[in-house]
Amino acid sequence: MRINEYVPDSSIFDFNKTVQGSNVSSNISAGNTISDDAKIDGDTDTDSSISDFSSMLKSKLDEVNRQQLQADNSTQELIEGDRTDIHNVMLDTEQAKMSLELAVQIRNKLVDAYQELNRTQL
User: Fold this and answer.
1) Residues 117, 27: contact at Cβ < 8 Å?
2) CA pair distance 69, 96, nearest whole angstrom
3) Which of 10, 51, 80, 88 has the fewest C-beta atoms lying within 10 Å of its C-beta?
4) pTM to 2 decimals?
5) What is the DSSP string of 63-99?
6) C-alpha angle 98-101-105 in degrees, rounded to nearest 5
């Protein structure tokens, strides 16, 4: 499987499912009780903010995938001789590379934040 053919699995964004046999579901339920206790009148609905965040994250991952595909197509066209502008091919490739690096850094920050939350004593 080539990286440009990767399609993100949208099931990872479903926060309402619980994981059987792990402490993730207990951490989520503990977080829900804390958030219920800490709610102040006028707060926004957390379910809508979770779905907004997950849809935004999915759309950005789709955009990274689209840029990877565009760079791959540009390179393939250059190799086949259909394109002669190597400058634009390199721009497409570098843009795709930078967006992928940014996505990896964001993923690493999210994983670090999740691990930090798991280490937090309640």
Assistant:
1) yes
2) 9
3) 80
4) 0.57
5) HHHHHHHHHHHHHHHHHHTS---HHHHHHHHHHHHHH
6) 135
